[in-house]
UniProtKB/TrEMBL annotation:
Gene3D superfamilies: NAD(P)-binding Rossmann-like Domain. This is Short-chain dehydrogenase TIC 32, chloroplastic-like. It comes from Panicum miliaceum. It comes from the Eukaryota.
Length: 348
């Protein structure tokens, strides 16, 4: 969307634009059969996303580091929507152990999983390492979500297969993915404190979010194609095993993965550069959104039926948006995937 559309709120091809709210883009949607996990669902955009998903009938799991704040958020939502179904589970994305504990706890609840919203993050924080020895913005914004998604993927596949309802993974990236280090992802210097720039490190983590979405989407599609080839051969040779092969065909076929830019919203995420960003906000006030508008693209991509089957795209203001050159690189996306897997293995 161009600057003029952003300023005026003019709707794009989707029928929605920068002025649309999360309630508007999900109007008429019945999510009562859905279970959704929302990381960072207790404040800011995540809280509004939790509220609107619950409003549409979904069973919402708020995954949060601060469970007290999350419980208060749950209470606030239920005061206005007593029928809301909301649970709170602890998740610290900067800790791989916490991510694994969360996945184990969720899976032990024997709940289905239809939608995963990777929303939580940190922004512009001073240099520090996570408990696993990884630069904090990269660890929290990308690595934690990368592991979480992988650990929950089998549940999502099983849910999509048993219910026939398309699963959706929404990964919050940002327009900041365009402002990163020259190589895009500086794999050899992730933890280099001397070279650390809080803004570029944030952009690097947001580029990683976008590349993660693209690569996971590609891998799921490739799996479908391989399953198609396998099923054709098997049906030709052994038609008696049709049902078993049909299951193989459907594995992974009904999950979409997309990334989004929510827009400019003043939330707690910006606490490390609050004064600077407040000055910028005053100077560019016409470009900023309120939280109801800020959660719109997340809710649109996560719930709106007109996006059925759409995968591997990047959205802003509820419309498909262009990305940077680095974000278009399949090679960089594959390299990031391998790097992320190895980093997680080495941290064990």
């Amino acid at each position: 969307m161009g600057i003029l559309s952003l300023i005026t709120g003019k709707a794009g091809a989707s029928g929605f634009g920068s002025a649309s709210t999360a309630e508007q883009v999900t109007d008429g949607v019945d999510a009562s059969r859905l279970t959704v996990i929302i990381t960072g669902g207790a404040s800011g955009i995540g809280l509004e996303t939790s509220r609107v998903f619950a409003l549409r009938g979904a069973h919402v799991i708020i995954a949060a580091r601060n469970t007290e704040a999350a419980s208060e958020a749950r209470k606030t939502i239920m005061e206005n929507n007593p029928a809301a179904r909301i649970d709170v589970l602890k998740l610290d994305l900067s800790s791989l152990k916490s991510v694994r504990d969360f996945a184990d706890q969720f899976n032990s609840m024997k709940l289905p999983l239809n939608v995963l919203i990777n929303n939580a993050g940190v922004m512009f924080c001073p240099f520090q390492l996570s408990k696993d020895g990884v630069e904090m913005q990269f660890a929290t914004n990308h690595i934690g979500h990368f592991l979480l998604t992988n650990l929950l993927l089998d549940n999502m596949k099983a849910t999509a297969k048993s219910t026939g309802i398309e699963g959706r993974i929404v990964i919050l990236s940002s327009v900041a993915h365009t402002h990163t280090y020259p190589k895009g992802i500086d794999f050899d210097r992730i933890n280099d404190e001397k070279r650390y720039n809080d803004k570029m490190a944030y952009g690097q983590s947001k580029l990683a979010n976008l590349l993660h979405a693209n690569e996971l989407s590609r891998r799921l599609k490739d799996r479908i194609l391989k399953s198609n080839n396998l099923s054709i051969m098997s049906l030709t040779l052994l038609t008696v095993h049709y049902n078993e092969v049909k299951g193989s065909l459907e594995e992974g076929a009904n999950i979409t993965v997309n990334s989004i830019h929510p827009g400019l919203i003043m939330t707690n995420l910006m606490r490390h550069s609050y004064v600077l960003l407040k000055v910028i906000q005053v100077a560019t006030f016409i470009l900023w959104k309120n939280v109801h508008q800020g959660a719109a693209t997340t809710c649109y991509v996560g719930l709106n039926p007109q996006l059925r089957g759409v995968t591997g795209k990047y959205f802003a203001d509820c419309n498909v948006e262009k990305t940077s050159k680095h974000a278009k690189s399949d090679e960089l996306a594959k390299q990031l995937w391998d790097f992320s897997e190895e980093l997680i293995r080495s941290a064990q």
